[in-house]
Sequence to fold (289 residues):
Amino acid sequence: MTPSRPLAVIGAAATLIAGTALGAAAITGGQRDGDQHPNVALITSYAGGRLSTCTATLVSPTVLLTAGHCTAGVSGRVGATFESVIAEQPASDGSPPVPIASSPAGYTDAELAAAGYLTGTAHTHPGYSSFADPRNWNDVGVVVLDEPVNDVAPAELAAEGYLDQFTPNILNETIFTAVGYGTEVRPAESGPQNPTPQPYPFVRRVADAPGQKLTEQILQVNSNEKDPRGTGGTCFGDSGGPAFHADHLVTVTSYSNTQNCRYIAGFQRVDIPVVQGWLAEKFGVTPAG
Fold:
């Protein structure tokens, strides 16, 4: 399985440069998450001198699970916050909603601590193919936090092969819940009314999407909020965020097939041996039960 337009839309991280958000789209449709998923965090880091944000999920007191393209090439430290609302509106001085490092080499612990963010180190799955090999997609990464999070319950990782129960007919009738940070895709309050990324409010959002296709590596869903079976889907800015089924974390957001994120979205499976083996052996993360 290969996305029809991978290079145009595949890196679903919101990227910010010199305090300006660029192409930061997120959940299409859906609604504010509020306190529904307190174990889903915003993560922020630098890669190649560029500041970017992604979404991640606490899967143990010290481990955040995210996408490989959110951790690949990261320099410096990674910051994380579980705040549901990052910013309702732009700051009066034009500063970005997340901390800015003093150097393109990335964050320091002191810079993140001053902003009230947790600190951690990025790790990328050794088999991450940078989207070159659909049979070995492995778009998975983790952030290992310096200190355990004791006031948030980790999400429950789905057991190995969990998604295999969904045959095509069942999959098309099954709803998956996606969670992520970033800007909402919607018409602007004035001017042209085509749905476009709106940078504020910068909040955690949630949407339900029906299954569309399943491969050995990828779950695809229909992310159009006009689909009567669901409420929306994911887009740029939601990378690494979870999709849940029956409270089981089954995937992380990987890509979208269209620029306006209103058709097919692709999620990296985390219920497969190549992912679960890495999580267990390197980080001690295993499915509950």
